[in-house]
From TrEMBL, chain A:
Protein's organism: Streptosporangium sandarakinum
Segments passing through the bilayer: 42-63, 107-124, 145-167, 208-231, 283-303, 347-367, 379-408, 420-437, 444-465
Protein name: Uncharacterized protein
Keyword Oxidoreductase attributed: no
Positions with biased composition (Pro residues): 1-16, 242-252
UniProtKB/TrEMBL annotation, chain B:
Source organism superkingdom: Bacteria
This protein's name: DUF2613 domain-containing protein
Length: 605, 42
């Protein structure tokens, strides 16, 4: 592969022929190869996605825990409880108007891998392909991503996948008017006070917003994780001191002026100096963008009467999923609260040991990187990683503090599942691995490093060996959905059994959120209390968030005969329950299938 | 030397990965997920 002639401000000199593959200049004689190299991280992400999802990419729906896609999803707004699937469910429903919903789901899942891999590669301060591929593989194939996917949190993973791009936009959106960019644009470099600088400042939040779009679609968890990284990066990013940015996404202009860190430089200033005023302005601008994109879930959340049970801290705290305890699990990007969301075999000494060694190498690689070497996000990303690790550790080792905060204000509720804030740490390790590979400067090291993430967690492949698979809904579900959605009469639907999750035989007994919660155009009343099994065999109950749950709970406890009237008074029109349930004798049976039964509470009860 | 070291590490990891895959791929008496009405088990 041909090397890049060092430009006037080249930060990373091209390596020798045996350097692990230096990116050739696009548009040059080896332009095709340059394009291939540019797209290589995305293609690697696609390959890893195909390998990880495996059987889940077949015809049907992938249903597991929070990942519930339904046929013909109705485009409805948020309900009464905490807006957990806002606006992701609405976006899926709108896309499903033009594309089969199964295709939407598979595109989203594959897109997570592609976006994650290409983004991590773009952050590595190297022009060599090997280090970038190593970072891409690590960020698209690690315990964090695997566990969250096995918990069905695809919406969160949209934000995690877009995180490198958001970090890059916050830190790098102004690339400096490099000589090459100026030559191409046919204009002079930007100087403060000129129209171009004004444009540059205006373009910065737009770029950041575009980079945050996947997180915005994902909803509250995705945006919170993104904010954790974007705000400190925006506040601490310094001009790259005469160095060009790392290789950009396909089609990106490496020298295009916009807003951001370097826009605050004075003429003739060497760059790299951090100043309070611009830092506050950038952080404030980034916060404004984050808040704006959070409005779809923030407004319903602030307007809802949802409550958060502090018991959730104990239920969802990080746990040890390997032989190195909770801290060791978190350092290796595992430690998710749910033992059923673990990657099979990840708890063995071998798997945990090599992943810990890999994490150590990655952190070492990141620590050896200098901020001035085209990594202006370094301080901010490190801050975010430490903060995220701190939140995860707080739930495990100081649950009282976190519980007290949640009891004081339910807004702290999202902190109870602290492990999810490891995303910046995962990104730090990915970039660090790329930097470590860069230091070794060898094709062989680069090739092995790109394969290592898969080799240390091989059982994530093939849908984590069957944990993810595609199934189709039995016909009875579609028929019930059609009946209820065709009824113009108002009234809610009550979903029974009175619990949030189901384990259907047709879905391989995989636990999923009740699909009835997403199938109907009308309000669905369901029990959003969460039952979490404890290692000793007991169960921990996390109180429901939706205030309507208590009323339904009381109605269901009414004596036989009065139950239907009590539910009707709550505005319930339909009851969806198990086929063998004969609790509601005064209700009219609308449909009975092998598994489910639909009842209607007629007026006048 | 670096090449040999990298290849050796890669080979060791590949062997370990093969063992892990065989272990997990072997038939087990339990299904991957138990039919719980739980959200999950810690």
């Amino acid at each position: 592969m041909a090397g890049v002639p060092p430009g006037p401000d080249a930060a990373v000199p091209p390596g020798p022929a045996a350097d692990g593959g230096t990116l050739p200049e696009a548009g040059g004689p080896s332009g095709a190869r340059a394009a291939a190299a540019r797209f290589a991280p995305a293609l690697l992400g696609l390959a890893l996605g195909l390998l990880a999802l495996g059987p889940a990419l077949g015809p049907g729906f992938v249903l597991r825990y929070d990942m519930v896609f339904v046929p013909d999803p109705p485009p409805v707004g948020p309900g009464e409880g905490f807006p957990r699937a806002v606006p992701s469910d609405l976006v899926v429903a709108l896309l499903a108007q033009v594309v089969p919903v199964q295709a939407v789901q598979k595109a989203a899942l594959l897109g997570i891998f592609v976006l994650a891999a290409s983004g991590a590669a773009a952050l590595v301060p190297s022009r060599r392909l090997g280090p970038r591929l190593a970072a891409a593989a690590f960020y698209a194939w690690n315990a964090y991503l695997a566990q969250r996917l096995l918990l069905g949190q695809w919406a969160l993973l949209l934000g995690v996948a877009g995180l490198p791009w958001a970090v890059r936009a916050a830190a790098h959106s102004f690339r400096g008017a490099s000589a090459e960019a100026v030559r191409r644009a046919g204009r002079t470099p930007a100087t403060p006070g000129t129209r171009e600088t004004w444009w540059a400042r205006a373009a910065w939040p737009v770029r950041l917003a575009v980079a945050l779009l996947p997180a915005a679609v994902g909803g509250f968890q995705a945006m919170l994780v993104s904010a954790l990284a974007v705000l400190p990066v925006a506040a601490t990013a310094r001009g790259p001191a005469g160095h060009p940015p790392p290789a950009g996404p396909p089609g990106a202009d490496p020298g295009e002026p916009s807003g951001g860190p370097e826009a605050d430089r004075r003429p003739g200033e060497a760059g790299g100096r951090w100043r309070v005023g611009p830092a506050v302005r950038r952080a404030g601008g980034a916060a404004a963008v984050v808040v704006l994109l959070s409005l779809p879930w923030l407004v319903p959340a602030l307007g809802s009467r949802a409550v958060t049970d502090p018991a959730g801290v104990r239920a969802f705290a990080a746990r040890a999923d390997g032989p190195f305890g909770t801290v060791g699990s978190l350092l290796t990007l595992g430690g998710i609260w749910n033992s059923d969301a673990g990657v099979p075999g990840q708890g063995t000494w071998w798997s945990a040991g090599v992943r810990l060694a890999l994490a150590a190498v990655a952190v070492w690689g990141f620590a050896r990187t200098r901020a001035g070497r085209a990594a202006p996000y370094r301080a901010g990303l490190a801050t975010a990683a430490v903060a995220g690790l701190g939140v995860a550790l707080a739930g495990a080792f100081a649950p009282g503090v976190l519980g007290g905060l949640i009891a004081w204000w339910p807004g702290f509720g999202p902190l109870r599942d602290g492990q999810l804030y490891l995303a910046p740490f995962a990104l730090l390790q990915a970039v660090g691995l790329g930097c470590a590979v860069e230091r070794w400067n060898s094709r062989a090291v680069a090739a092995v490093a790109a394969a290592v993430p898969v080799l240390v967690l091989p059982t994530f492949a093939l849908g984590a060996f069957g944990r993810l698979a595609a199934v189709d809904y039995p016909d009875e579900w579609r028929r019930v959905q059609a009946i209820v959605n065709a009824d113009p009469a108002p009234g809610a639907l009550l979903s029974l059994p009175w619990g949030a999750h189901r384990a259907f035989g047709w879905n391989g007994h995989r636990v999923i959120l009740d699909p009835a919660t997403k199938m109907f155009r009308r309000r669905v009343l369901w029990n959003d209390a969460l039952l979490v099994g404890l290692p000793g065999g007991g169960r921990l109950r996390v109180a429901p968030e939706d205030p309507a749950t208590a009323g339904v709970d009381a109605a269901l406890r009414a004596r036989p005969g009065a139950r239907e009237a009590a539910l009707a008074r709550l505005g319930v029109r339909y009851v969806l329950t198990r086929a063998g349930d004969d609790t509601f004798r005064d209700a009219a049976t609308v449909f009975t299938g092998p598994e489910i039964r639909l009842l209607r509470l007629d007026e006048g009860l | 030397m670096r090449v040999l070291l990298a290849l050796a590490i890669g080979a060791i990891l590949a062997v370990g990965a093969s063992v892990a895959v065989v272990n997990v791929g072997s038939p087990t008496p339990e299904p991957p997920n138990r039919p719980l009405y739980n959200y999950g088990t810690r």
